[in-house]
Amino acid sequence: MNYNISILGGGSWGTAVSKLLSENNHNVKIWFRNEKKAEIVKKTRENKHYLPDIKIPEEVYITSDIKEAVEGAEIIVLAVPTQEIRGLITGNIELFKKDAVLVNLAKGLEKDTLYRISQVCEELLPENRFVVLSGPSHAEEVALEMPTTVVAASLDEEAAKMVQDIFMSDYFRVYINTDIIGVEIGGALKNVIALAVGISDGLGFGDNTKAAIINRGIHEIAKLAEKMGADRLTFLGLSGIGDLVVTCTSEHSRNRRAGILLGKGYTKEEAAEEVGMVVEGIITTHAAYQMAKKSEVEMPIVNELYAVLYSDHKAEDAVDRLMKRNKKHEQH
Ligand SMILES: NC(=O)c1ccc[n+]([C@@H]2O[C@H](COP(=O)([O-])OP(=O)(O)OC[C@H]3O[C@@H](n4cnc5c(N)ncnc54)[C@H](O)[C@@H]3O)[C@@H](O)[C@H]2O)c1
Ligand SMILES: O=P(O)(O)OC[C@H](O)CO
C-alpha cells in the first residue's frame, strides 16, 4: 500500500528517510524551514551540508511551506532535533490532523519537562497515534543502502506494524516492539554514553576503556529505564545495545565526534559548532542527570559527564573518580 508521507525536517536523517520512503513507492514530501535551502536542494537534488553526494529522488517533493507539506498526510515524520519538536507542533498545531500517524525519529529527552517525545506528543496531540523509529541507523549508511535494522515501537501494535510495512525495504529491516519507554530511553541515552566514549577516545584511551563505558553505560541506562517502567530485555535489542554500540564506535556519530573534541579540551559549545549538526547527547545529559536524581537511580557515568559539561570539571578527573569508586557487585 502507498501512503502520503510528510517529513518535517531536512537534516541528514530526514533526507535519508525521504529517499528510502520514496524508493518504497510512497508519496513523499519533505519540509525545510529555510526557503533558500529548500530551493537549492530542489534544484540540485542534493542536501550538500547534511548528506553530501546522495541523490534525492525526483519523486520527493521538496517544500518550505509546512502547510503544503502536511496537507493530506497520512503519516507525519518528525525529523527535527528533540528540543525543537514542541515548538514545531505548537506553532503549527492546526495542521496536524487527528488521523495522521506520528512517526518520531528524534532521539533525546526534553530539557525542561524531562519528557520522552511520546509524552510531548501525548500532551500536544493526544488523539494522534504515535510510533518511534529507533535503532542503529546512521543516515550516511542508510543513504548508501547498507543493510540496517531498526525497531518501530508504539503502545498501539497495529500502528507499529503499519510503520514496519511502510519503512521495510531490501536494505532496511524493521522490527516492532510495544515497550515504548525502553525504546525511547535507550535511543536518548545512548547519545550520552557516546559522548563519554568520545571523551575517552579524545583523552587517548583505548578499546578496553571504550568497552567498559559501553558496558557500564547500558547497565546505567537499563537501570533508569526499568525504574520508569521499561522492560530490561529491550536493552539487549536494537534500540538498546545495538544503537549504543554503533554510536560509540562509528566514524559517523556526531555524539562520539563531539566527545572526542571535549576530550581534547573543547567546550561543549565549541564541539557542537565544529560538528555542525545536532549533538543530542549534550542536552540529554542534562535531562538524564535530573531524571536519575529524581528517580534515585545511581548513574555514575551520567553524573561525571554532567559535571564535565555543566560544571567545568576536567575530563581526566572524571575518569579518575569513576575508577576509584567504592567496590561493588557487577549487577548492582
Ligand atoms: N543522522 C542520523 O544518522 C540519525 C539517525 C537516527 C536518528 N537521528 C535523530 O534524528 C533527529 C534529527 O537528526 P538529524 O541527523 O537529521 O539532524 P541534523 O542536524 O542533520 O538536521 C536537523 C535538521 O532539523 C532542522 N531544524 C532544526 N530546528 C528546526 C525547527 N525548529 N523547525 C524546522 N526544522 C528544524 C535543521 O535545519 C536541520 O535541517 C535527531 O534527534 C537525531 O538524533 C539521526
Ligand atoms: O550521529 P549520532 O551520534 O547523532 O547518532 C545517529 C544515530 O542515532 C545512530 O543510530
TrEMBL record:
<feature type="binding site">
    <location>
        <position position="135"/>
    </location>
    <ligand>
        <name>sn-glycerol 3-phosphate</name>
    </ligand>
</feature>
<keyword id="KW-0560">Oxidoreductase</keyword>
<dbReference type="GO" id="GO:0141153">
    <property type="term" value="F:glycerol-3-phosphate dehydrogenase (NADP+) activity"/>
</dbReference>
<feature type="domain" description="Glycerol-3-phosphate dehydrogenase NAD-dependent C-terminal">
    <location>
        <begin position="179"/>
        <end position="319"/>
    </location>
</feature>
<comment type="pathway">
    <text>Membrane lipid metabolism; glycerophospholipid metabolism.</text>
</comment>
<feature type="binding site">
    <location>
        <position position="12"/>
    </location>
    <ligand>
        <name>NADPH</name>
    </ligand>
</feature>
<feature type="binding site">
    <location>
        <position position="139"/>
    </location>
    <ligand>
        <name>NAD(+)</name>
    </ligand>
</feature>
<feature type="binding site">
    <location>
        <position position="107"/>
    </location>
    <ligand>
        <name>NADPH</name>
    </ligand>
</feature>
<dbReference type="GO" id="GO:0051287">
    <property type="term" value="F:NAD binding"/>
</dbReference>
<feature type="binding site">
    <location>
        <position position="13"/>
    </location>
    <ligand>
        <name>NADPH</name>
    </ligand>
</feature>
<feature type="active site" description="Proton acceptor">
    <location>
        <position position="190"/>
    </location>
</feature>
<feature type="binding site">
    <location>
        <position position="243"/>
    </location>
    <ligand>
        <name>sn-glycerol 3-phosphate</name>
    </ligand>
</feature>
<feature type="binding site">
    <location>
        <position position="107"/>
    </location>
    <ligand>
        <name>sn-glycerol 3-phosphate</name>
    </ligand>
</feature>
<feature type="binding site">
    <location>
        <position position="255"/>
    </location>
    <ligand>
        <name>sn-glycerol 3-phosphate</name>
    </ligand>
</feature>
<feature type="binding site">
    <location>
        <position position="253"/>
    </location>
    <ligand>
        <name>sn-glycerol 3-phosphate</name>
    </ligand>
</feature>
<keyword id="KW-0443">Lipid metabolism</keyword>
<feature type="binding site">
    <location>
        <position position="254"/>
    </location>
    <ligand>
        <name>NAD(+)</name>
    </ligand>
</feature>
<keyword id="KW-1208">Phospholipid metabolism</keyword>
<dbReference type="GO" id="GO:0008654">
    <property type="term" value="P:phospholipid biosynthetic process"/>
</dbReference>
<feature type="binding site">
    <location>
        <position position="280"/>
    </location>
    <ligand>
        <name>NADPH</name>
    </ligand>
</feature>
<dbReference type="InterPro" id="IPR011128">
    <property type="entry name" value="G3P_DH_NAD-dep_N"/>
</dbReference>
<dbReference type="InterPro" id="IPR013328">
    <property type="entry name" value="6PGD_dom2"/>
</dbReference>
<feature type="domain" description="Glycerol-3-phosphate dehydrogenase NAD-dependent N-terminal">
    <location>
        <begin position="5"/>
        <end position="159"/>
    </location>
</feature>
<feature type="binding site">
    <location>
        <position position="254"/>
    </location>
    <ligand>
        <name>NADPH</name>
    </ligand>
</feature>
<feature type="binding site">
    <location>
        <position position="33"/>
    </location>
    <ligand>
        <name>NADPH</name>
    </ligand>
</feature>
<keyword id="KW-0520">NAD</keyword>
<keyword id="KW-0594">Phospholipid biosynthesis</keyword>
<keyword id="KW-0521">NADP</keyword>
<keyword id="KW-0963">Cytoplasm</keyword>
<feature type="binding site">
    <location>
        <position position="254"/>
    </location>
    <ligand>
        <name>sn-glycerol 3-phosphate</name>
    </ligand>
</feature>
<comment type="function">
    <text>Catalyzes the reduction of the glycolytic intermediate dihydroxyacetone phosphate (DHAP) to sn-glycerol 3-phosphate (G3P), the key precursor for phospholipid synthesis.</text>
</comment>
<feature type="binding site">
    <location>
        <position position="139"/>
    </location>
    <ligand>
        <name>NADPH</name>
    </ligand>
</feature>
<dbReference type="GO" id="GO:0046168">
    <property type="term" value="P:glycerol-3-phosphate catabolic process"/>
</dbReference>
<keyword id="KW-0444">Lipid biosynthesis</keyword>
<feature type="binding site">
    <location>
        <begin position="9"/>
        <end position="14"/>
    </location>
    <ligand>
        <name>NAD(+)</name>
    </ligand>
</feature>
<feature type="binding site">
    <location>
        <begin position="254"/>
        <end position="255"/>
    </location>
    <ligand>
        <name>substrate</name>
    </ligand>
</feature>
<dbReference type="GO" id="GO:0046167">
    <property type="term" value="P:glycerol-3-phosphate biosynthetic process"/>
</dbReference>
<feature type="binding site">
    <location>
        <position position="137"/>
    </location>
    <ligand>
        <name>sn-glycerol 3-phosphate</name>
    </ligand>
</feature>
<dbReference type="InterPro" id="IPR006168">
    <property type="entry name" value="G3P_DH_NAD-dep"/>
</dbReference>
<dbReference type="GO" id="GO:0005975">
    <property type="term" value="P:carbohydrate metabolic process"/>
</dbReference>
<dbReference type="Pfam" id="PF01210">
    <property type="entry name" value="NAD_Gly3P_dh_N"/>
</dbReference>
<dbReference type="GO" id="GO:0006650">
    <property type="term" value="P:glycerophospholipid metabolic process"/>
</dbReference>
